[in-house]
Amino acid sequence: MKKIVLFLLLTANFIACKRNANFTDKKTEKEEFTVTNSKKEISFDDLEEVSLPFCIKGSYVKDDLYYVDIDKFLGFHKLKKSLNKEVNALFHKGTIDFITNEEVFIAYPYYQESEDSPPFAVKKIQINDSITTVLYGYIRVNEYSVPRIELQTFDKQGNYIDSIILYYRLADECSGERTFCIDKNFKIKIQTEFGCTAIEKDDEDFNFEQTDTFKITETGKIVKQ
Can you tell me the distance from the alpha carbon of 49 to that of 185, in angstroms, rounded to the nearest whole number? Predict the structure, then answer.
């Protein structure tokens, strides 16, 4: 009789332990699922905030390293690359330029090919509590080297929203430059110039100028005005 009672007690204790273990496992799985699916907020705190209005205008560049050395390029404009790997890694590749005229198309999409410099965050503009704009500098190398500054917008979790190429400079057989100003209302005025001097006697000089205005909205979209 004692053996039967002892057996029943041991069996009941084993079932209770197994149920507790199953409950603990399910609870742990639920906690792990919750952690995995909650994306943390990205910190942009170490980026220097732009004082608006902020402009980069055309200027004469003497140093040829400006076109091939990212530090020389950024230093010329009194910009400094961020070493925040998390923010640098947010950069969205493949921005399509708003000027599609093939005769003056310089701002080819950037995909960080082997000869290109990596993109570095250099400044930020806080649109509101939810939206941050980051200015990135990089050098795209194709047939020629073109230093650029690109603006991209993100939400708190670092999700990409929109982007626009603000600045570039080309010095080759033809020359081109894009400059910009961002005012206190987050309006962006962009001036694009491109020109080629005639080589042959019967050829004509080619010049192109265009001014465009955009606005960064409260949702982070960049809208043409």
Answer: 15
Separation between Cα atoms, residue 125 and residue 217, nearest integer Å = 12
CB contact at 8 A, 31 and 161: no
Which stretches of the chain are DSSP H helices?
2-36, 70-76, 85-88
- Whole-model pTM: value is 0.80
Q: Please give the DSSP secondary-structure letter assigned to residue 110.
A: P
3-class SS letters over 136-177: EEEEEECCCEEEEEEEEEECCCCCEEEEEEEEEEEECCEEEE
Neighbours of 103 (CB within 10 A): 9
Q: In terms of Cα–Cα distance, which of 174, 173, 182, 175 is closest to 153?
A: 182
The residues, any chain, with a CB within 8 Å of residue 97's CB and separated by 6 or more, are 105, 107, 108, 109, 165
pLDDT in tens, 118-164: 999 999 999 999 999 999 999 999 778 999 999 999 999 999 999 99
The DSSP code sequence of 84-103 is: -HHHHTTPPP-PPPS---GG
Cα(191)–Cα(38) distance, rounded to whole angstroms? 42
